[in-house]
Amino acid sequence: RIDGEVGFNRDAGDRLVVVGTAPLSHLALLTPVEEADGDLVVDVTMTGSVARPTLAGTVRVAGGMVRQGAFRFDDVELFAAMDEGGVEIREASARIAGGHVRATGDVALQPAAPDRYRFDLHAQGVDVAQLTAPRESGPALSTVVDADMRVVADQLALDAVRGDGALTRVQVSVDGKTLGLERPVALAVRSGTLTHAPLRLAGSAGGVTLDASVAYVGGQTQVSVGLDGDVDLVVANPMLGETVALAGLASVSGRI
User: Which of 216, 170, 173, 156 has its CA nearest to residue 27?
Assistant: First the structure.
């Protein structure tokens, strides 16, 4: 239901009330997402003008889905409140890559506002190996992470995001062999690329110092990994498919 009127460039002296439910798929028309599903429940009053709006009300999403490239978010839950200062994301959560992510933050309504998007992000149990190209054969690789990060952006696009945080868990598993993070390390994201301080992994698959980057370029996720240490070659088997099966401890130094 939509009642009232507002001007495009000037205050019409009235208010516009929007109350109801809309398909979340309309997001694909307004924001850089490829696919969305579920319902958006809106109860918002707008005064002023379209160019300089003042909003008050709430927006909710329950059981939604949003996909952009390899990033598919299921069971999306959102509660946001609006006032003259902008939009406050009081709670947002979703499942992705076998884990769970949660966010809070705020969005400034004025397009020219610096860092108009500000979010605190928390990821738990996310298997980042699932975010790369799917593998059709060979042993499965699992790389489960926990992380916390504060990010800002001038526009709603992955390559516009900047942020800093901490990687608190990494658990790599291949064919029963494991490598785990010895201590938390710093994270950073700039221009669509996520990097971290060199980290130490150790476990039944050996011990190795690793530095990696994950870049989102042209709708694709690109992963680069540098290794230095002694590691069981079984961890390389997921990249070789079923044609070759390696095993045994080896000294490695290089980047893949």
Answer: 156
Distance, CA of 118 to CA of 11 (rounded, Å): 28
Kindly give, in sequence order, each residue whose CB lies less than 8 Å from that of residue 55, ignoring residues fewer than 6 positions away: 44, 45, 46, 82, 83, 84, 87, 109
Contact 167, 187 (CB under 8 A): yes
- Under 8 Å between Cβ of 230 and 208: yes
The helix or strand, by DSSP H or E, that contains position 255, with its residue range, turns out to be: strand 249-255
Following CA atoms 147, 101, 223, 254 in sequence, which dihedral angle do they give, to the nearest 10 degrees? 20
**How far is residue 122's CA from residue 106's CA, in Å, rounded to a whole number?**
15
**Phi/psi of residue 29, each to 5°?**
-85, -20
For residues 167 and 185, what is the distance between their CA atoms, to the nearest angstrom? Answer: 5
């069981």: which residue's tokens? 232
pLDDT in tens, 43-81: 988 877 666 677 889 999 989 999 988 789 999 999 999
Q: Could you tell me if 113 and 107 are in contact, meaning their C-beta atoms sit under 8 angstroms apart?
A: no
- Token pair of 10, please? 């000037």
Q: Reduced to 3 DSSP states, what percent helix, strand and coil does the chain have, rounded to the nearest 5?
A: 10, 65, 25
